[in-house]
């Protein structure tokens, strides 16, 4: 089916058009520059930016794909999780389009879409699949038995997301926002073993064993790591010494990447998942890709990483998941659903809740 998908959960306004597993258009407009001076996404600004960008982004996606709204078989939109006001702009736009065109509308889960997008790069996804999602807002390990029916959350961050940790550490090192790309680059000039920063939730009391799993076996924590980096920097500054920025960046990155790759591979091994998909904006990280590939190779796990433009937030991922939802025969969501800023990953699509 020809599906048009709309994404507006955070700071990217995205409209994507797919035909089954074929990508026809993926137009993204971001308000990131407007958040730079605040060091993080400001919800109110993001919502306004979506309102400005939505229709031009839609127009450009249709032009790129060379299709008209009449050609579309179905519409899709992110209902959650994400920023409430930001989500509302996308959902309102999608409902208006559905009313105007009479096409069915599917409300889909943003996180599951980060996995579903995999079909656009490398073809159909295997049934039993693990997913490691790392972005500015999420750090999660998923077990997927069916992308349209059965998604389970195995573990998640209990405080900051990985991308958020990159952004906060970059800020305290005076490297600007977003922090991920700068730290990634700087780390190449530093020594990742120079400073041993804490690996969150990796003590035996949290991890346990395969037979007797600890409460946080597959969970993450990055706020202690961020504090450790801050203390380290403060100590240098207090002594009037120059902070070894490249070594700090490399050692911080090593701590993040070490835990997430270890836990993701452990989850796959223990749940019989022979395939792992990496998604989210932090998937662009060069060290993460390298170490995850090496550890997957040793464990006999096939790793899939969609190209970067499909890993960061975009509309094509929403369209790609909806195409699979349509193919699985799931009913459309109707027009009486709301946004769900905290939509759990187990809720793949939303049903029409409003009964008149
Ligand atoms: P969501 O969490 O809803 O997916 P988001 O906008 O926060 O939304 P993305 O756009 O997917 O997430 O990713 C942005 C994050 O990715 C930022 O925190 C940024 O620092 C991080 N990032 C981008 N490139 C890299 C990189 N090379 N290394 C590490 N982190 C990176
Ligand atoms: Mg973003
Ligand atoms: Fe995302």
TrEMBL record:
Free-text comment on the cofactor:
Binds 1 Fe(2+) ion per subunit.
Q: Where in the cell is it found?
A: Cytoplasm
Q: Which reaction does it catalyse?
A: L-threonylcarbamoyladenylate + adenosine(37) in tRNA = N(6)-L-threonylcarbamoyladenosine(37) in tRNA + AMP + H(+)
Flavoprotein: present as a keyword of the record?
no
Cofactor(s) the record lists: Fe(2+)
Indicate yes or no for the key word Acyltransferase. Answer: yes
EC number(s)?
A: 2.3.1.234
InterPro entries, per this entry?
A: ATPase_NBD, Gcp-like_dom, KAE1/TsaD, TsaD
Pfam families documented for this protein: TsaD
Provide the binding site for substrate. Answer: 133-137, 167, 180, 184, 285
Swiss-Prot/TrEMBL keywords: Acyltransferase, Cytoplasm, Iron, Metal-binding, Transferase, tRNA processing
Q: Which residues form the Gcp-like domain?
A: 22-319
Q: Which domain of life is it from?
A: Bacteria
Q: Where does Fe cation bind?
A: 110, 114, 313
Q: Which family does it belong to?
A: Belongs to the KAE1 / TsaD family.
According to its UniProt entry, the function of this protein is described as: Required for the formation of a threonylcarbamoyl group on adenosine at position 37 (t(6)A37) in tRNAs that read codons beginning with adenine. Is involved in the transfer of the threonylcarbamoyl moiety of threonylcarbamoyl-AMP (TC-AMP) to the N6 group of A37, together with TsaE and TsaB. TsaD likely plays a direct catalytic role in this reaction.
- Its recorded name reads tRNA N6-adenosine threonylcarbamoyltransferase
Please tell me the species this chain comes from.
Answer: Zhihengliuella alba
Gene name as annotated: tsaD
């Amino acid at each position: 089916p020809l599906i048009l998908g709309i994404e507006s959960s955070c700071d990217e306004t995205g409209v994507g058009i797919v035909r089954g597993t074929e990508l026809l258009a993926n137009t993204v407009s971001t308000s990131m520059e407007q958040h730079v001076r605040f060091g993080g996404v400001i919800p109110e600004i993001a919502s306004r930016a979506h309102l400005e960008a939505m229709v031009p982004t839609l127009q450009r996606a249709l032009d790129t794909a060379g299709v008209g709204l009449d050609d579309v078989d179905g519409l899709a939109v992110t209902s959650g999780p994400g920023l409430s006001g930001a989500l509302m702009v996308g959902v309102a736009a999608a409902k208006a389009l559905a009313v105007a065109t009479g096409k069915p509308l599917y409300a889909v889960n943003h996180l599951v879409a980060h996995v579903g997008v995999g079909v656009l790069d490398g073809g159909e996804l295997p049934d039993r699949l693990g997913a490691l999602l790392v972005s500015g807002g999420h750090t999660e390990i998923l077990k997927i038995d069916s992308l349209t029916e059965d998604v389970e959350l195995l573990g998640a961050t209990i405080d900051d997301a990985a991308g958020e940790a990159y952004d906060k550490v970059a800020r305290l090192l005076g490297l600007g926002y977003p922090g991920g790309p700068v730290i990634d680059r700087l780390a190449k000039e530093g020594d990742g073993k120079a400073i041993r920063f804490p690996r969150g939730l990796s003590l035996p009391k949290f991890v346990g064993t395969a037979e007797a799993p600890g409460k946080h076996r597959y969970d993450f924590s990055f706020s202690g790591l961020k504090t450790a980096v801050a203390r380290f920097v403060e100590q240098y500054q207090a002594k009037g010494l120059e902070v070894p920025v490249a070594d700090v960046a490399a050692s911080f990155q090593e701590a993040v990447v070490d835990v997430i790759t270890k836990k993701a591979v452990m989850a796959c091994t223990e749940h019989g998942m022979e395939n792992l998909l990496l998604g989210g904006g932090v998937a662009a990280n060069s060290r993460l890709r390298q170490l995850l590939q090496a550890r997957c190779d040793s464990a006999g796990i096939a790793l899939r990483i969609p190209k970067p433009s499909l890993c960061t937030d975009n509309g094509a991922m929403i369209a790609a998941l909806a195409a699979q939802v349509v193919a699985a025969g799931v009913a459309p969501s109707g027009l009486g659903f709301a946004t769900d800023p905290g939509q759990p990953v187990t809720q793949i699509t939303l049903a029409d809740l409003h009964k008149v």
